[in-house]
Amino acid sequence: MFTKEELLVIKDAVKIADKEYIRLIDMHKNNKNNMVAYNKKQKKLWRLENKLNKILDEKLYEE
Q1: How far apart are CA 16 and CA 53, in angstroms?
Q2: Rounded Cα gap, residues 10 and 61, in angstroms
Q3: What pTM does this model have?
C-alpha cells in the first residue's frame, strides 16, 4: 500500500486543494452554479481527507 511518508505527502496535497476550492468558492459567490459545483468538489475532498486521517491513525498504531 502506501508508506507513512507517502500518506503525509497526499495529506499536504489535499490541504492545498482545499485552500484552492475555498478561493474558487469565494471568487464565484455571485455565480450560484459555479459556487455549488466547487462546494460539491470540496465535500468530496473532505471525505477523502477524513479517510486519509483514519488510514494515518491506523499506520501510527501499527508502528
Answers
A1: 16
A2: 19
A3: 0.82
Write the CA distances from 16 to 11, 12, 58, integer angstroms.
9, 6, 23
For 32, list phi and psi in degrees, rounded to 5: -60, -40
Distance CA 33, CA 5 (A): 37
Q: Which residue has the cell 486543494?
A: 17
Instruction: Tell me which amino acid residue 50 is.
Output: N
Write down the residue that cell numbers 498504531 correspond to.
Answer: 61
What mean pLDDT, rounded, does the chain reach? Answer: 92
CB 18 within 8 A of CB 45: yes
Residues 6+ apart with CB under 8 A from 58: none
pLDDT tens for 27-43 read 999 999 999 999 999 99
Reading the block at residue 43, the C-alpha cell is: 465535500
